[in-house]
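User: For a benchmark we're assembling, each entry needs the component sequences followed by a predicted structure for the full assembly. Here are entry 17's components. Please fill in the structure.
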Amino acid sequence: MSLLRVCAFAKCLSRRSLFEKCAVRPSLADCCQLCVSRRSGAVRRISETPLQLQRRNVSFRIPKTEDTKKRVLEQSTLLDVLEARIHQLQSDGVVEHSKVQFVKAPSRGASSGKATKSAPHQKTDIPKSAAKGGSKSQPSRWMEKLTQENKNKLKKQQHLQQKIQKKDKPAAKGKGGKSSSLLPGTSRKTISTAAQKTAPLIKTSRGHTNLADEIRAAASPSTVTAAGTGTGALPRKVSKGKQKKDPTSLVPSGEGGQQQQQETVTDAQIRAKELAEVEELERRLSQQVSQWTSSSNPERLQENSEAAACGDIQLSIHCYLEACVFAGNVDRAHRFLLSQHRVMSRRKHLNTGVYNIMMRVWAKKDTLSQIGRMFILLEEAGLTPNLGSYCAALECMGRNPNCSPRIVSRCLSKMEEDGLSMDNLFKKCVFRQDERDMVLKAIRIVQPDYQPSLNPTTSQCSSSLVQDFYIQRADHQYPKLDFSEEELQERFKHQLAMEQACTVTINSVEAAKPVTENMAKMRELLADQRTQWRKILLQALRESKLILANTNTKDYRLNLYPYLCLLEDREYVDIMIQSVTSLPPSGESLKILARDVGNRVYTKYSVRQKHQNQMVEKLGNIYYAYTDLLAKDTKEYEVLPREQWLKLETEQSSGPSLQGGETHWPYTVTLELGTYMVDLMVKNLKINSDVLNSAYDRKLIPILYHMYTFRSTRQVGFIKPHPILTQMQQDAMETKLTFDSYVMPMLCPPVPWTSVKFGAYLLTPAKLMRTVEGATQHDVLLERCHNLHAVLDSLNQLGNCAWRINSPLLDIIISIFNDRGSDKLDIPPPLSEAPKIPHFNSQDPAYTASEKAHMKREVITAKKKCSEMHSLRMDALYKLSIANHMRDELFWFPHNMDFRGRTYPCPPYFNHLGSDVTRAVLVFAEGKPLGPKGLDWLKIHLVNLTGLKKRSSLQGRLEYANSIMEDILDSADNPLNGKKWWMNADEPWQALACCMEISNAVRSPDPTQFISHFPVHQDGSCNGLQHYAALGRDVIGATSVNLMPCDVPQDVYSGVAQQVEEFRVRDAKNGLKIAKVLEGFISRKVVKQTVMTVVYGVTRYGGRLQIEKRLKEIDEFPKDHVWDASNYLVRMVFSGLKEMFTGTREIQDWLTESARLISKSGHTVQWVTPLGLPIIQPYHRTRNQVLKSSMQHINLQISHDSKERPDTVKQKNAFPPNFIHSLDSTHMMLTALHCYSAGLTFVSVHDCFWTHALTVDTMNKVCREQFVALHSQPILQELSTFLLQKYFAVLPSDAKNKKYQDYRRLMQLLAKVPPTGDFDLQRVKESTYFFS
Amino acid sequence: MSAHICRVVELMMRSACCHTVRSRTCLHKSGFAPVVPAALCAPGAPRLHRRAFSLGSLSSGPGRPTLGPSAQQPLAERTSPLHRKLSAVAVQGQYRPLCRYDYLDLGEVEDNVRRAQACKNSRFFIVDPDLATLITQTLTPDDAKTVIFDCNPGPGVLTRTLLNAGAQRVVALEGDKLFIPDLQDLEGRLDGQLEVVHCDYFKLDPIGSGYVKPPAMFTDKLFTDLGISEASWTDDIPVKVVGILPLRNDRGTLLKMVYALFERLSVFRYGRIELNLFISEKEYLKLVARPGEMMHYRAFGVLWQMACDIELLHKEPWESFTKSSRQHVPGPKGKLPNDHMCLVRLRPRADLFSAGLTPSNASTLLMMVKQLLAKRKVKLIDRLNLWSPDSGSKLLSEMGLSEDILTGHVYPEEYLRLFQLMDKSQEFTQSWLYEEILENTQREGWG
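Assistant: Structure for entry 17:
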């Protein structure tokens, strides 16, 4: 019976669904025409005053009659709704027409595409598409609004119900009844949904047949006209454009040359010219746009709207269901989905994917009838089944050992009707466990020899920059890792084990210290306490889960219960205990603590999920095969890691798919779960107050406290540990540190990024692009982007570099760390070195008031200092402990990038981007002989690290190094007892490491054969300005940042300092006091930081602070004048820069102004890097979201919500630096790719490139070539074209209003790319000091 | 349920007992129609009418200082007909004892408005002579010993009105250079009754270690320059401050002031400085919120109520103020009405520091109140027990409060007493949270 229904649903449901749609949409359209509004408006006006009075009374604190309160509130909400509707009715009636036309023009493609998809619905086709067309115009908007109203009402009601703790049924009924008298639309909905539960579905829809028919009849003319206007819109627009052009074509039409020659141009003519330009632009644009929309995907628009609709709620629902299913709570999931589905306002948050989750479950349970029911629900909700839905259906059929071929073929033909192909099914669906095999089995019932075609889509990189790189590979030699295949596989196993455990416990470097009696005692005490706490927490967790599971009677509300069933109870407790241990003594804000705890649960859950999906084994198989590409003992490959991995994946296609499938939890869910767990901790973790000092009375006191700190007018919730706990932890000096597994570097080469969703760690989820918590716009863009190959490949290349620890240096550092630290060498001292916090009794009458105040201040500063020291110390402890743990290992840093494409290693504490200390500890795992020039490069590198001789030529630096060989060797031999030459370097630890390397090399029998692991750096000299200068082909600028070959390196900072000094002399002559005071104080150092950061958008304000800091460092400088002087200097630096970099300034201004106008027009600034990486600036107006929990309301200030208007100030200020960053990241990626093909080891710290001493020259060559290649692209021109296309795809219609003027201004601006100078870019290739 | 009723009843009883905030609603509110910007260029007649009406109702109000009718002054020669009439109303019944024969001309209204609007900061101005008169009447400026700080006078209408009403010593603290020359001009014409300082009262004692230049200033300098010396707290009021609280960060400024008051820093080192400020209605209602109004009863209101006698002197619609070009009139955000500016008198209590509270332990009180009122619907006893286990019930019984009282139901006076008890108890002063509190009273948080 049920099987039959599945097969038959196509027929009967298509009709039913039609009724659904028609019934809802046009009926609302109709009802709006009625004068209900007027009437209700009158009603409102009459009843308003007494009601409002009543409301006021109610708000008084006496909850005497709850019933009246409820009733009154209900009435008032109803009134609110009506009021809102009146406004809508009044306003929309007028505005609608002009807007509607516009949306439709492009959307036609999409809807027609859909129409062809649903072609077999012959009978229903016409009315359906009509309904769809109609839905673009008024009715859908009405529907939206009504459901919105409904939602509001419901929300209020829920709130009320929650408050008065009553059953919701009578209330709902009451509401339904009441609203029905006024709004037929809503009443219908509630009735139908209420009926659904009990009565069979067919009945309900049949019950409405009459109504629906009528309405359809009424609606069809209007929808037809809507469709008519839809088609008419485009031609009309075109004609409008022509008309506009006509008058201007009277003015000399050949804009450009001729006109410019006319010397006497009147104002009118100028304006006319501008107009003509704009017209011309418009014409060009509309051509482009029409090409664009016609040629390319109708998907685009669909995706667009989908992305917009896909809000937080949808994601929450998705995650909730998945969590339910994962925890085996199918019943809850099912109930939830049904109750969401039942109510219109909630139904609109559902998409096909949500239903698919349930289908998947039923497929596993082999209940085809349930899947059929899901299909019915889908139809009912007006959604079309997608690949996932059919996949589940087929899977279910496959599981049934005696499934009749007829059913399968029905399903397949239905699928085809929906325009979905079988091959796509296998290509695009995410399979779990044995789903794929089951689907295949089902298909083979009908087509016994079906084989999914799996030729991977080999779309070549479109960017012309890297086209050659991908096509001409003949002379590429990809580097191999210095491991055998077996070794790599062994490492893989270790890494896998670590990630499966999710946490790693390692020895801290303080373990080397001897254990005192007190320490032993404390450790024991703590261990005892922890077992106690574990027990208590476990019990508390179980109890509260029980309460959560039982109290929540309303199915439709998302609650935390499923999220608390994902892991074993014990694991939650472990996570909580771990967070207690790592809580800093000064406490942590609740938000951060909760986020961390929540994230830990998520990470563990997603690892578990991969297990459940049986992915791990397959991953292992593919990885084993993949090692073939990397290992040294195998043949040479001509493919990149990503390509190899994809190939392997298609080869081993059976079983679960590796990619995708996991949904990130929305930020709010993570936070809510975290707060819940923190609340448990605060409430339950106790300790005896006499545990340390038996003199105190024994009382059971909490160890964690929830309190507030106050920042300006805000209050921030804080969790603070009791001092007893802190004391115990400090005294115990525990030697074990527990980290999340992703904190550690990887023990095997990372999985190559093959798509946006897959790469880096083996099991731990990682994001390709780091974003603000909760921002989704980047993901949406990335997923839409089809060709990220070059970006992914360069990330893989950076991640594939193996590292190891420089043990001798680490030993020295640890010895200092464990001794007393050293501020000078940037090794944070232990807390025992901290200033003692003075104790005083404020009651003591011996102190005078001023003494007390003084002591109080001292206490405060001492405490502040202590907490600073503690955090620095812990940071160093983590880094060094990880390094120490990795001492004998080889390891890898998987990479990802920020939203501008700058790359970063994923492990947060210990990586090569870190401070001098961590950088010094890291060397390449692979060693290469120094070769003929290697030793020289090492020496030059050493001099670079000292910060001396910046203005000497390379030869000069080398000579200097040779002249101080004695010091260098001494430093290497007696780092701590010798002359300590290295300690005075800018980067002392790296300098020391370099000294050691040089001494080893020099003392080896043949330095050219000396195997060096040491990375040599090449630094871009003021990289931001280099890019600006190259963009503007600015000769003076280019010379001063070393784009032009010179004998000695040019120093832009000195240049600016000189310029500023000139200004100063001039001003001093004119008698400016501050200029006189500054005599002799203007140096390179004073201006350096400001010049460096000016490119990255530092403002006068920030610049002044920087200079102020520098001036304060100069002891001789009179302190009274610091403010004036810094203010003066920052102005001079800015104007000095302006003088030197004219082109730069122009480009910067152009970028800023463009961003300002784009943002003002309501768009966010977006662009695409030359490698095709899409970038969007996530700065919007702040929206406050309050997260309610029993503990505290957490106020989230969300500034990345793409539905809010863009934050113009941020958008404009950030655009130039972000754009330049996106360029420098592109340059780095290009260099990385080409270095890889040349077989080099290459890593980068943004604009500082690292490689072996042997290969420095090659890298330098690649680096320069790629810079030239990058800037030979018409970057600004392309940016301008992109922006024009992006923001003028839809041309505004009304020529008169202010918006149109703005839009024209923007268009002119965007089209007017700043002119470039005549710097010859090719010269960069010869410039020695470009990167040095 | 019944418990709830009991609580409400109890609350009402207690509120009857401790009545401290005498928020006298204003009588003549109805007299003001929302007109102003249009009325400025319109003929003066309706405007005059309006004022006359409002003044009439004012003088009939009880408790107002009624001013005996006095000689009309011969201003007619110097002013235009329209303004002669206006000034006639404004100056009615006032005299200046020192220079009886020289009444200060308030200037043309249009002229003043124009000058005020030229100001580049976002500010409100008192330009309307009648409003100035009204304020002057509430201040009783003829008290010879009290100095009046006229904050940000702008075109100086209020300043002149004050002087006309017989103020002996007015200090005009003007933050905007634009108005300084005119004020100084006036200063020069007078015989020492007026001093003009380039200083923004609301930017006194800036935090942070920057270079301080006018209009920011330190109180020491200001008071030393003016020759006002420190006075005992219980002495008479040495200075009355009158002005409009800047809307931008008004809450922050109020908090900063109440902090200074409790710790006797800033101007309060010099005695009980009385503030007569125009603040927005919304902020005023929050300031005087009573226990039980869980939404608005916040630490900031509690502290002000604890420290000062708060009196609402006058309510004036936003429209009556002239605003500079950059100033926007705020709309009602949230549930509180916000149509007016309220002239509020905040007079520090003489007995504030008499029972256990001292400026040095006041910071603990501040932090205690803030911590307790961060959430208003928690039981007070729980909070107290967190600070010192098991001593909460003892304290509450000493206070005569019920065990299950919520923090949002405790009166300011009761908080003060609670603190005094806590400060005496060994358990609390030794509690580690007491120290945390100490640490947390950094100036950074005026929450």
